[in-house]
């Protein structure tokens, strides 16, 4: 065994303790009869020695506590470094980290493909640690409370871990075995329970995760071990989790809340997020957006998916295909599904906007209604100008204006007035007829009633200019009326919503074709529901949206409706199921009207 390093102060204390231990005690004079005063003095001396012994004991504890980190450096680490003694013999931090990471990644990949163990308990946790680090550390699979003797004969004693290294409290070494025993009792409950609900299973997982985090059983690698261990726990229950979409800030906060405040809700929420397919997609999308678009170090933020029924307030920072993201005053980043806010609000959001919303507890709406704002006069004018016949009319006015006034732009300000208020056209047309010079100087010259050719052509063209002004005004009014009517119809269409199919329709959709016909035959009320549902789709979806469904262009459908891509896929799937069921309804309708010898032929024609 190598010689242990003993601090000088401790060496001096040991000398003094030796002197105390060698001191004379009253019991040494049992066989003699000393003077009473001598005996009393010896008793006082013994009391003083005992008090000094107690003081030295406290000093020894203090010195050992203050030198514990030094002992770790001497035993677990290479002298003068913060590199753990490793099987590679590498002392360079960068080289060690590269080799360590490579071996760890290979080990995790191998463990993830391992079959599930018969029982999930602490021995399996140790097996994971040993498998992960057997190529890196001699002490792989060993818990931190027990001294470890290296192959070179040096024995390492792990000091207590402080918050300087871990952002939450962890168990002292002398508690670890008790914590392991408690964990095995909890694992036994899991191994013998086959019918936990999803929520109960998440609650159990949060509690166990908290217990392992607090125990912090290994010198290094606890986080990696926990990830693989919980992947196996969830796999055994038929679920899949993804730790890669959790940020360090979120995991640290959840652990600290559970361990130090007894609040396991953040851990419960964390496991909900990384086990729900929808939430995993939202988290992955948000993290990718923040890294690639915003260039953000995501590990600094708690990134969470909204919880149903809660109110959130923050600054809108962007969106992906599935969700939008806000940053709260606590500096958390909260993700919401696009379909959870109104389409008009979603379309209006720009980066930096304040946003407050309540995540709905239930969502029975498949396609939301949307309040489309009325068109402003400016928007109407812009639309009118896109029509080809309007552009042609304006060109004719410019041509006539050049003939009458020698300048194609002479009536531009007048035309602007007509664009804003087409009803002025009739009055302006009449004024051009009666007083053309009130708008601009007429082209050509007139001297003593003598007009040159240009002047004669200009005056002869004045009636044409007046007519074209009146015609343009009428066209503007016609186009405006059409635009307003079309927009009103669009408002009515978008205002309608389509609910999720009820249980009867869901049952209908799940049946094969022949089963659907029989189901509709037996239940006329379901048939009526189907007709109403088809009509709701017909009223709500535009031709371009129906084409997007046909083309499986879910991105376009999502943009048109104002929802997420995943929701647009759901809309398309339900729409297609509705169409198929309605097709069977039409076959039923034909078969109940046609003679028997025509049924087969007619049905086959409709199906094709």
TrEMBL record:
An individual GO BP term: regulation of cell division
Domain (Fido) ranges: 120-292
The protein's enzyme class: transferase
Reaction catalyzed: L-threonyl-[protein] + ATP = 3-O-(5'-adenylyl)-L-threonyl-[protein] + diphosphate; L-tyrosyl-[protein] + ATP = O-(5'-adenylyl)-L-tyrosyl-[protein] + diphosphate
EC number(s) reported in the record: 2.7.7.108
Molecular functions (GO terms): AMPylase activity; ATP binding
Lineage: superkingdom: Bacteria
Pfam families (alphabetical): Fic, ID
Matches recorded under InterPro entries: BepA_ID (IPR040548), Fido (IPR003812), Fido-like_dom_sf (IPR036597), NA-bd_OB-fold (IPR012340)
Keyword field: ATP-binding, Nucleotide-binding, Nucleotidyltransferase, Transferase
Protein name, per record: protein adenylyltransferase
Organism field: Bartonella ancashensis
């Amino acid at each position: 065994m190598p010689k242990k390093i003993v601090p000088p102060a401790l060496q001096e204390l040991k000398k003094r303790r030796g002197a105390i231990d060698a001191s004379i005690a009253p019991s040494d004079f049992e066989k003699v009869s000393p003077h009473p005063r001598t005996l009393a003095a010896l008793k006082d001396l013994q009391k003083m020695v005992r008090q000094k012994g107690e003081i030295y004991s406290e000093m020894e504890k203090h010195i050992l506590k203050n030198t514990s980190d030094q002992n770790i450096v001497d035993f677990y680490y290479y002298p003068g470094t913060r590199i753990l003694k490793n099987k590679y013999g590498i002392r360079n931090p960068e080289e060690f980290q590269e080799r360590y990471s490579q071996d760890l990644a290979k080990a995790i990949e191998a463990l993830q493909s391992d079959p599930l163990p018969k029982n999930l308990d602490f021995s399996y946790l140790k097996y994971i640690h040993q498998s992960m680090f057997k190529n890196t550390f001699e002490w792989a699979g060993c818990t931190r409370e027990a001294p470890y003797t290296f192959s070179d004969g040096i024995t390492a004693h792990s000091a207590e871990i402080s918050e300087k290294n871990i952002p939450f409290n962890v168990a002292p070494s002398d508690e670890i075995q008790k914590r392991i025993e408690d964990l095995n009792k909890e694992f036994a409950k899991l191994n013998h329970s086959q019918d936990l609900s999803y929520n109960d299973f998440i609650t159990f997982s949060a509690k166990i995760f908290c217990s392992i985090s607090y125990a912090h059983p290994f010198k290094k690698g606890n986080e990696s071990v926990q990830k693989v261990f919980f992947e196996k726990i969830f796999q055994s229950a038929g679920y899949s989790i993804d730790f890669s979409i959790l940020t360090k800030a979120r995991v640290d906060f959840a652990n600290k809340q559970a361990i130090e405040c007894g609040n396991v809700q953040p851990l419960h929420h964390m496991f909900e997020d990384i086990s729900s397919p929808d939430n995993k997609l939202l988290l992955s999308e948000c993290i990718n957006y923040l890294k690639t678009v915003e260039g953000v170090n995501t590990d600094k933020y708690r990134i969470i998916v909204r919880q149903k029924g809660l109110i959130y307030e923050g600054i809108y920072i962007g969106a992906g295909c599935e969700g939008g993201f806000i940053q709260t005053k606590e500096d958390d980043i909260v993700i919401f599904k696009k379909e959870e806010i109104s389409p008009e609000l979603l379309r209006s959001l720009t980066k930096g906007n304040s946003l407050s919303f309540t995540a709905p507890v239930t969502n029975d709406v498949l396609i939301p209604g949307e309040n489309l704002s009325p068109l402003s006069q400016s928007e109407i004018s812009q639309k009118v100008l896109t029509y080809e016949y309007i552009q042609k009319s304006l060109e004719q006015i410019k041509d006539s204006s050049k003939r009458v006034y020698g300048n194609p732009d002479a009536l531009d300000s007048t035309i602007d007035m007509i664009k804003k208020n087409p009803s002025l056209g009739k009055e302006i047309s009449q004024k051009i007829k009666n007083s053309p010079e009130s708008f601009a100087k007429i082209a050509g010259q007139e001297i003593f009633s003598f007009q040159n050719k240009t002047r004669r052509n200009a005056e002869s063209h004045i009636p044409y200019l007046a007519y074209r002004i009146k015609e343009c005004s009428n066209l503007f009014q016609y186009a405006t009326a059409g635009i307003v009517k079309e927009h009103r119809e669009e408002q009515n269409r978008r205002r309608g919503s389509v609910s999720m199919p009820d249980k009867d329709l869901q049952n209908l959709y799940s049946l094969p074709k022949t089963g659907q016909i029989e189901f509709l035959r037996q239940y006329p009320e379901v048939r009526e529901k189907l007709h109403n549902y088809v009509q709701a789709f017909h009223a709500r979806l535009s031709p371009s949206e129906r084409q997007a469904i046909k083309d499986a262009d879910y991105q376009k459908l999502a943009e048109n409706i104002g929802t997420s891509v995943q929701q647009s896929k759901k809309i398309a799937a339900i729409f297609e199921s509705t169409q198929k069921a309605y097709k069977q309804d039409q076959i039923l309708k034909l078969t109940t009207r046609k003679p028997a010898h025509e049924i087969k032929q007619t049905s086959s024609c409709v199906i094709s």
